[in-house]
Amino acid sequence: MKAVTIKNPADGYFNISNVTLRPIQAGEALVDMEYCGVCHTDLLIASGAQGEHPGRITGHEGVGIVREVAPDVTSVKPGDRVSVAWLYAGCGHCEYCEQGLENLCRNRHESGFDVDGAMAQQCIVKADWAVPVPAGLDPVKATSITCAGVTSYKALKEADTKPGDWVVIYGAGGLGNLALQFAKNVFNLKTIVIDINDEKLTLAKSMGADLTFNASNNDSPKFVHEHVTAGVSAAIVTAPAATVFDQAANVIKAHGTVVAVGMAAGNMQMSIAKMIVDGTRVKGTLTGTRHDLAEAFEYAAEGKVTSMTRLRRMKDINKIVDEMHAGKIQGRAVIDIKSEL
Ligand SMILES: [Zn+2]
Ligand SMILES: [Zn+2]
């Protein structure tokens, strides 16, 4: 079968390889892949920045149809549409897995990183970890929910807000746009979207942001304090820049929460005295659990959130890499695996 694989040595691009999968084992299912989104994380792994992974099949935004299951599998059956997300599997029996924090399992596996991923004609999954895609959800759109969708949904859950609260979303890119939709349409929040790109802010405004602000001068706390007298309960930081985290720490009201999503290099600056006096909470969040993904899928199936996607062919993968690095792709490039012969 055809698969998009990491090169040896890694150079930022991919090979299209002919791969033969091993037979499935207990607890596993074989999935005929239909679609798989191309994520910046895939590019990071292909660059070698996370070590060498020669021959590893990439992809963690996959959707496909179960072809075959091992005899002991009861959670999915042939014909079911399932997803292959970043969280390939947790160990299932550690303190994190047992508390519903499987995304933090110390022995978890990650698709397209330490196990073969979804950008191939077929993929072997741990059946209990392949979250079903609801019938009402377009499988192409579902690919983005497996990654950016569940990540932004989980970030809002971690923010501990209540309906009517104000939330600031830093970064109006793919993650920020989905966070805005979840904030408005699922969590019933009032929203301020902050970015340094006016086009992205215009898009956010058209999608229902109550306020938008261009923070090229790092002055978002002043804007927020002037425009939201009730104060802001949470800041979701999807922009991967340390300076943005510093702003976020000064934007929220007492007992507010800063939720870190964008993987920024460097450290965050915070006044310890202000943190104590204000009871500020700072949380990091990494993707989501199976349960979070199932919930995010349901909201997407109800039409409360959607993503911008464009179908592309597997042979164009390295062109897509260049276009992503050049910032030329609006929304998500999704590989149409079904059309491969
Ligand atoms: Zn991703
Ligand atoms: Zn575990």
Could you characterize the architecture of this molecule?
The strands form 4 sheets. Strands 3, 4, 5, 8, 15 and 16 form a 6-stranded mixed beta sheet that branches. With 341 residues, the chain is α/β, with parallel strands linked by helices. The protein is 28% helix and 25% strand. It has 2 domains: 2-132 and 308-339, Quinone Oxidoreductase, Chain A, domain 1, CATH 3.90.180.10; 149-284, Rossmann fold, CATH 3.40.50. Bound molecules: zinc ion (ZN) (2 copies). Residues 39, 41, 60-61, 86, 147 line the site of one zinc ion.
Radius of gyration: 20 Å
Ligand inventory reads: zinc ion
Q: Give the count of structural domains.
A: 2
In round numbers, the mean pLDDT is 96
State the CATH class of the largest domain.
Alpha Beta
**CATH fold topology of the largest domain:** Quinone Oxidoreductase, Chain A, domain 1
Number of strands: 16
Largest sheet: 6 strands, mixed
Q: From the 3D coordinates, which CATH architecture of the largest domain would you assign?
A: Alpha-Beta Complex
Query: What level of helicity do the residues show?
Result: 25-40%
Give the name of the CATH superfamily of the largest domain: Medium-chain alcohol dehydrogenases, catalytic domain
Could you state the order of secondary-structure elements as H and E?
Answer: EEEHEEEHEEHEHEHEHEHEHEHEHE
Task: Please give the alpha-carbon distance between the first and last residues.
Answer: 9 Å
Unreliable runs, pLDDT <50, ≥5 residues? Answer: none
- The proportion of residues in beta strands is 15-25%
Layout of secondary structure:
Elements lengths: L1 E5 L7 E5 L9 E10 L2 H7 L15 E8 L11 E4 L2 E3 L5 H4 L10 E2 L11 E5 L12 H20 L7 E5 L3 H12 L4 E6 L2 H9 L4 E4 L5 H8 L4 E6 L4 H8 L2 E9 L11 H7 L2 E4 L5 H12 L7 E4 L4 H9 L6 E5 L5
Helix pairs in contact: 3-4, 3-9
The structure holds zinc ion (2 copies).
